[in-house]
Amino acid sequence: MLCQNIHCGLFEFCCFNWIIISGGTMAVLKIKFSFQRRVHLAQGLWLLSWVAMFSGGVTFCMGLFLKMELLRRAEVMHTTDIHVVPNLLMVVGLASVGINLFAGRVCQDSMDSTRFTQWKNVMIPYFGVSLFFTSMLIVAMALSYALQPNLEESLKVGLKNGIRFYKDTDTPGRCFQKETIDRLQVEFRCCGNTNFKDWFEVQWISNRYLDFTSKEVNDRVRSNVDGRYLMDGVPFSCCNPASPRPCIQEHLTDNSAHFNYDYHSEELNLHNRGCREALVNYFMGLMNTIGPCVLSVFFVQMSVLASLRYLQTAMAALEGQENVEVETEGYILEKGVKETLNEAKETLKKLLQLGQVDAEPAPGDAEAAEGKAAS
Amino acid sequence: MALMKVKFDLKKRVKLSQVLWLMYWFAVMAGVLVFVMGLFLKIELRKRSELMDNNESHFVPNLLIGVGLLACGINAFGGKICYDSLDSTKFSKWKDVMKPFLICCLFFNVLLFLSALLCFMMRIPLQFTLAEGLKNGMKFYKDSDLPGRCYMKRTLDLMQMEFKCCGNNNYKDWFEIQWVSNRYLDFSSKEVKDRVSSNVDGKYLMDGVPFSCCNPSSPRPCIQHQMSNNSAHYSYDHYTEDLNVWKRGCREALVSYYGGLMNTTGALVLLVTALEVAVMVGMQYVNTSLSTLVNPEDPESESEGWILEKTVKETFTDIMAKMKAMGKGGQVEEGAEGEQGVATVS
């Protein structure tokens, strides 16, 4: 029975009585509601509000999951701009649970028109707040795509620092970088920032493990301006397990250093991807999965709000009437869109002016005004 | 004297039936859980069957899957009987089925208990299978061009990285096998020729390990080659270096992983057994209380329920006597037929 009710309400929403805005005093999307239809609408809305509450919970969980994943990799990220997306999702998830609980409550009370009148004054602010939070869902989705360059930049700087401080396992504050970068490269099957050659430009072996009495070390250190020990080798975590050959980590550009080895044609030896690309793909993949879910939550929430608005206006028309079984009309907006916007502007202006007028009159001015009026 | 006799009035009977119906639904879910655990265990064994030489026994997970499905069926049936027990007309059609059903439940509970014990004991054969499998696996590490063995290198590397282990018992196992394929050895170089001729089998042995043995927590870049030669590396002492490569052997790591899994499953199955015994006892009470109504026409009359009609000893002697009677009855029948046969012939 309930399934029929929801079907009924939505079908009418789509096909009946579409009164297009003509700039006059026509209501927007007016629908006639008989007593039976009102009851069906209320029942369908009650069920829909439970579904929407559940999906609000799901939104919160998705936001939480995304935040946990971002926090796990916080050591290779320089800025936290991207955290605004999961934060928004969590806030909206919690808010929508509250919004839908309220909608369900109003729905239950709508069966009895005396109890329904107590909600009258709260409804307009409620709709304002709900629309604001629901639109935040779309904002979150848009941000998740818009902030991709920020994420990439943040990872670029973070990984560069990680690779620079790889050798500093004895410096407090940086001693974890080696383990972080190694585990990252193994887990995401990547090497370096853009590719494995990033390791050639950095000294990734600490001076503690270099024998400065040997000729080879001294030559290398003197061969560049900064006195760094650079080599054409990579750490073990860059090694690709799928390679048929035991991993070649050192003298990578020297073909003669290894038997049957050609640096230009060897593809499986190390991971080819850069870690920045790997991480960006991973996070964008997560957000692409979350995107459609958020969109469907948005649609469910909007349909709850629209149905509640219809219920509210249909019940409001019953006010003061003895017979509760008459037919009433429900609408989204009482007047056309333009007129409603103008009215809203007027109300806002009045509120602001009242505020100004209240603030201005000093005691002297008030007396002077009274004096003038008396004379 | 009946075992654990309890008096029942209508209210108590109804309450017992309702509670039992709820417990049967929990038992169905528990059956599903056992099924899922069996499936999970089977998948985990399959994932690493290469390391066990494709020789591992799937008996325990298969048993768990079967028992789980059986539990679902039996408990759903029990729940249906329970639901019908509230209405005496519906219950009368189940009356004849009750005794066989309860005996079936008893055997099923024994089977569940045995499965739980097997879960705990599976660790032992697994240890032997893993030891054999890993030893053979390491031998084929270099054969990445042999069909059928070409994935061994990748499997071993990924396993060593995932389980944080190296070699069979420890990293020195790698010193005893040739893990670099001949394809990548320059047989014209003196060093290679020396090493190969230094042992009987002509294998290229070295004191080095693959990269997957490296420990990322080490403060120093990984030392994989010439590990027992202190002078080959600056500031290196192979006796005191413990963070360089993983210290644990992979057999120990895998056995403890699977052992933990089996222990959890075994504990779960024991809990499910306890639940099943409870519902079986509850069902026996429902059965006996509904068949001993003081006034069979009046559903509100009092009745008694018990677990066994006589004491345990008496029930046991009754069963033995019945079995003997069945055995003797069979013999007497055979004798009678034989005499008849003889009578007709003569």
TrEMBL record, chain B:
InterPro entries documented for this protein: Peripherin/rom-1, Peripherin/rom-1_CS, Peripherin_LEL, Tetraspanin/Peripherin, Tetraspanin_EC2_sf
Domain of life the protein comes from: Eukaryota
GO terms of biological process kind: cell adhesion; visual perception
Locations listed in the record: Membrane
Keywords: Cell adhesion, Disulfide bond, Glycoprotein, Membrane, Transmembrane, Transmembrane helix
PROSITE patterns with a match to the protein in the record: RDS_ROM1 (PS00930)
GO cellular component, as recorded: plasma membrane
Residue spans crossing the bilayer: 21-43, 63-81, 101-124
Pfam families: Tetraspanin
Family annotation (SUPFAM superfamilies): Tetraspanin
Topology within the bilayer: Multi-pass membrane protein
Similarity comment: family membership: Belongs to the PRPH2/ROM1 family.
Protein name: Peripherin-2
Naturally occurring in which organism (per UniProt): Denticeps clupeoides
Organism classification: Eukaryota, Metazoa, Chordata, Craniata, Vertebrata
This protein's encoding gene: prph2a
